[in-house]
Specification:
Elements (H helix, E strand, L loop, with lengths): L24 E5 L6 E6 L3 H17 L2 H17 L1 H12 L3 H26 L2 E4 L5 E4 L6 E5 L7 H12 L3 E5 L5 H13 L7 E3 L4 H9 L5 E5 L2 H10 L7 E5 L4 E5 L5 H13 L9 E7 L3 H13 L20 H15 L4 E4 L14 E4 L15 E7 L2 H8 L4 E2 L1 E5 L3 H10 L4 E4 L15 E2 L7
Parallel strand pairs: 5-6, 5-8, 6-7, 8-9, 10-11, 10-16, 11-14, 13-14, 16-17
Antiparallel strand pairs: 1-2, 3-4, 12-13, 15-18
Helix pairs in contact: 2-4, 2-6, 3-4, 3-6, 4-5, 9-10
The structure holds nicotinamide-adenine-dinucleotide.
The site of nicotinamide-adenine-dinucleotide (NAD) has 29 residues, from helix 7 and helix 8.
Length: 459
């Protein structure tokens, strides 16, 4: 779903050695250099789930105030480890250090917002009962939650599942992405140091196979997943005969940003560049498609290209600090390069070419391609710095083009009148809808979730 051309087997550098005699290992590499960052044997998933089950009754029996106090202590542990955690995120994902620091802040802030969200959503209510007395609506935890994380925000996103699950009284088996286990391990240690035992939040090592085992395990009561639509669909399919399991799917997008009338050309262009190229396009909410009113095209595209030409991409600790880093691995960079060539050879007109300065490393430049002439544009999430442009004539056409996708995560409109924005808001199909804001950077105090292939209505 994140490349147009058929997928190839992953290069050796991304897989553990297939030695049947030895316990399989997961190896994490630094994308910017190819150096090994971390390695560890895959975990015994069955044993981990059984441990979490045994720990559940005692954790659930803790007073809510104790669980809240413990997650606040966790936030303090993250503060103490902030520098190391940010450095590990930067090394493991390749994102610039300033961005890794921002991710650590998000981890810390999520604790207080989860505490208030819990109070908002689960407050006890006393109601009149039919036979004159009163009754109460109260909430109980589910049991053991499996948390499956993606690689792009390897601390913040799993954490956003773990903290609310713990506050509610569930125990957690946390499997980070096989591309970011070092970050996952550090995060889990912060929970444990805060006094939340390694049985209550367990860190397990593994790839898709271990993910599948975890999802299917009888001892797991819920699956809290953030990742690609392909994986989300596989999880949904696997659990089609298990209506008892809670399933939260937060998946990708093919997000539109619609450009309408505005005199502020530079500001508008900056919103587009931020939306498309922050994190090198490796954000679920990144703008993949710029849908632009014909009369705005020349001025805005010239400005976007000027800004994109100035973007510095480089390694996480470079000076001056880069705006964006590399793709997560060579496999991802290969897929995006092939996808860009596919678009080019099927009617796309390059406004700014995708450049890979060194074939042995996954750095890619920002790229912009006009796709107006292509009839059946592929509806896939190109998870990298490629912005597709489509020219339209009126707002109905713009909205219909924005909705021309099976995904529905984020959508933004830049410019236009309040009435035009209201029409956009009412008719665009997306979970997050913004005006004169980038598609990225949703507020973490609001629920975030998508529709269509982007999520299953459980933000
Ligand atoms: P991914 O789907 O490849 O992997 C996510 C997790 O699922 C990993 O831990 C992986 O080991 C596990 N997994 C893989 N196959 C599995 C299976 N069959 N059963 C169970 N578990 C399995 O995702 P990724 O490439 O790490 O992350 C990038 C994707 O995540 C993008 O599509 C992006 O849009 C999406 N994402 C969504 C959000 C959101 O909030 N909606 C946020 C960030 C990223």
């Amino acid at each position: 779903m994140n490349a147009i051309t058929p997928s190839k087997p992953a290069p050796a550098s991304n897989t553990s050695p297939p030695d049947p005699e030895q316990k399989r290992e997961i190896i994490s590499y630094e994308p910017a250099t190819g150096a090994v960052l971390w390695r560890g044997a895959v975990s015994n998933i069955d044993a981990a789930v059984k441990t979490a089950r045994r720990a559940f009754p005692a954790w659930a029996a803790q007073p809510l105030s104790t669980r809240m106090e413990l997650v606040r202590r966790f936030a303090n542990e993250v503060r103490k480890e902030a520098e190391k955690l940010a450095e590990t995120i930067a090394r493991e994902t390749g994102k610039p250090l300033w961005e890794a620091n921002a991710e650590v802040e998000q981890v810390i802030n999520k604790v207080e917002s989860s505490i208030s969200a819990f109070a908002d959503r689960t407050s006890q209510r006393k109601l009149d009962s039919a036979i004159q007395g009163t009754m109460a609506v109260r909430h109980k935890p589910h049991g053991v939650m499996a948390v499956l994380g993606p690689y792009n925000f390897p601390a913040h996103l799993p954490n956003s599942h773990i903290v609310p699950a713990l506050i509610a009284g569930n125990t957690v088996v946390f499997k980070p992405s096989e591309k970011a286990p070092a970050t996952g391990e550090l995060l889990a240690r912060c929970f444990n140091r805060a006094g939340i035992s390694a049985a209550v939040v367990q860190f397990v090592v593994g790839g898709p196979d271990e993910g599948q085992q975890l999802v299917a395990h009888d001892g797991v009561n819920g699956v809290l997943f953030t990742g690609s639509a392909n994986t989300g669909i596989a999880i949904n399919r696997k659990l089609s005969t298990r209506p008892d399991k809670l399933v939260t799917l937060e998946m990708g997008g093919n997000n539109p940003i619609v450009m309408w009338d505005t005199p502020k050309i530079t500001d508008a262009a900056a919103l587009v560049v931020q939306s498309a190229f922050a994190s090198a396009g490796q954000r679920c909410t990144a703008a993949r498609r710029l849908i632009i009113k014909e009369s705005m095209y020349d001025a805005v595209i010239t400005e976007i290209k000027t800004l994109a030409d100035r973007i510095i991409f480089g390694a996480p600790f470079d000076e001056p600090a880069p705006f964006m880093g590399p793709m997560i691995d060579n496999y991802a960079a290969d897929g995006l390069t092939e996808s860009f060539l596919y678009l080019l050879s099927n009617g796309g007109k390059a406004i700014k070419h995708l450049v890979r300065p060194d074939d042995s490393l996954p750095f890619l430049s920002p790229a912009i391609i006009d796709m107006t002439a292509m009839q059946d544009r592929p509806d896939v999430e190109l998870f990298g710095p490629i912005l597709q442009v489509v020219k339209v004539n009126d707002l109905d056409e713009a909205i219909s083009e924005a909705n021309n996708t099976r995904f529905g995560l984020a959508a933004s409109m830049v410019g236009g009148t309040p009435q035009e924005y209201n029409r956009f808001w009412a008719n665009v199909r997306a979970g997050i809808v913004n005006w004169n804001r980038p598609t990225i950077g949703p507020s973490h105090t609001a629920p975030i979730g998508g529709i269509g292939l982007s999520g299953n209505h459980r933000p």
